[in-house]
């Protein structure tokens, strides 16, 4: 009986992760359960999106810590210009499409999964530390699952989003925050 309950919970968690990871409309009950858990306390370990696990199996170098584990990006004019340039270039380079749920770096067309790993890749290539480049699962006002990249700076956390060319602070982004990569290890995820 206990094993059945565990399997049922695991199935529900995987279904929720798959729905959110694919930038598709997530089940409101799943999101509500996660939101309730988030409001109840601080960040706790949680499952990574299922497709992220697959992405890491094929792109291991993108899923290893790089730089100091608690590093943040200095919000210098030079670094902010690089962040703006990467956000703009990736948003222009990838044509929006929902045809694939795979996470791919710099495809010709793709969804939020592809934009977020492409922006993270480009910033890692420019020497930014992985602990400051965190993939976040969010939900939009309409309840759709979505991914954004948060760049942790010494002034504020910045949101890079394929739905807008404007880089905003986390508090200005119109989303419900669900879960994110841990700053200490890209393979570890925690509730937002």
The number of helices is 5
- The outline comes out as globular
Strand content range: 15-25%
Instruction: Return residue spans where pLDDT drops below 50 for at least 5 consecutive residues.
Output: 1-22, 24-41
Strand order of the largest sheet: 1-9-8-4-5-6-7
CATH fold-level name: C8orf32 fold
Question: How many independent structural domains?
Answer: 1
SSE string, helix = H, strand = E? HHEHHEEHEEEEEE
Overall mean confidence score, pLDDT:
83
For the record, what CATH class applies? Alpha Beta
How far apart, in Å, are the first and last alpha carbons? 32 Å
In the CATH hierarchy, the architecture is Roll
As a percent range, the share of helical residues equals 25-40%
Write structural notes for this entry.
The protein has helices spanning 2-21, 28-40, 50-58, 77-93, 112-125, and strands at 45-46, 95-96, 109-110, 133-139, 145-152, 157-160, 168-169, 176-181, 189-191. By secondary structure, the protein is α+β, with helices and mostly antiparallel strands. The protein has a single domain, classed as C8orf32 fold. The radius of gyration is 16 Å and the shape is globular.
């Amino acid at each position: 009986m206990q094993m059945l309950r565990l399997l049922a919970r695991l199935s529900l968690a995987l279904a929720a992760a798959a729905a959110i990871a694919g930038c598709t409309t997530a089940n409101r009950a799943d999101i509500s359960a996660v939101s309730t858990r988030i409001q109840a306390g601080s960040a706790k370990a949680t499952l990574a999106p299922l497709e992220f696990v697959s992405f890491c199996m094929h792109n291991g170098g993108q899923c290893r810590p790089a730089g100091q584990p608690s590093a943040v990006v200095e919000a210098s004019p030079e670094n902010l210009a690089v962040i703006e340039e990467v956000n703009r270039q990736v948003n222009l380079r990838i044509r929006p499409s929902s045809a694939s749920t795979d996470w791919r770096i710099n495809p010709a067309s793709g969804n939020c999964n592809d934009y977020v790993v492409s922006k993270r890749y480009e910033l890692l290539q420019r020497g930014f530390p992985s602990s400051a480049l965190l993939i976040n699962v969010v939900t939009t006002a309409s309840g759709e699952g979505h991914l954004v990249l948060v760049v942790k700076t010494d002034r504020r956390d910045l949101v890079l989003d394929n739905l807008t060319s404007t880089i905003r602070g986390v508090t200005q982004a119109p989303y419900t925050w669900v879960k994110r990569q841990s700053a200490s290890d890209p393979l570890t995820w925690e509730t937002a």
